[in-house]
UniProtKB/TrEMBL annotation:
UniProt keyword annotations, A-Z: Cell cycle, Cell division, Cell membrane, Membrane, Transmembrane, Transmembrane helix
InterPro entries listed in its UniProt record: CrgA
Domain of life: Bacteria
Organism of provenance: Humibacillus xanthopallidus
Region Disordered, residue ranges: 1-26
Name recorded for this polypeptide: Cell division protein CrgA
Record flagged with keyword Secreted: no
Gene it is expressed from: crgA
Membrane topology: Multi-pass membrane protein
Pfam families (alphabetical): CrgA (PF06781)
Length: 83
């Protein structure tokens, strides 16, 4: 039966790799911006429905929903990167 080589006891101690940029905390403006995007997107959609499709921008019609959902998605994407 072959003999195992075992561990080399002469090796140096383990040193962890340097911290990556992904583990650093977010800047101070991060949370206020994503909260603002979420609230603004929600308000955009609510105003569009409550005003019978006349506001915020009557000329673009249903695209108001697209703008509202884009703002919401921007806020949700930022929440996923929040540390």
């Amino acid at each position: 039966m072959p003999e195992s080589k075992g561990r080399d006891h002469k090796s140096t101690t383990y040193t962890p790799p340097p911290r990556s940029k992904a583990t650093e905390p977010n800047p101070t403006w991060w949370a206020p911006v994503f909260i603002t995007l979420l609230v603004l997107g929600l308000l955009w959609i609510v105003v569009y429905y409550v005003t019978a499709y006349k506001y915020p921008i009557e000329a673009i019609g249903v695209w108001n929903l697209g703008i509202g959902f884009a703002l919401l998605m921007g806020g949700f994407i930022m929440t996923m990167r929040w540390r």
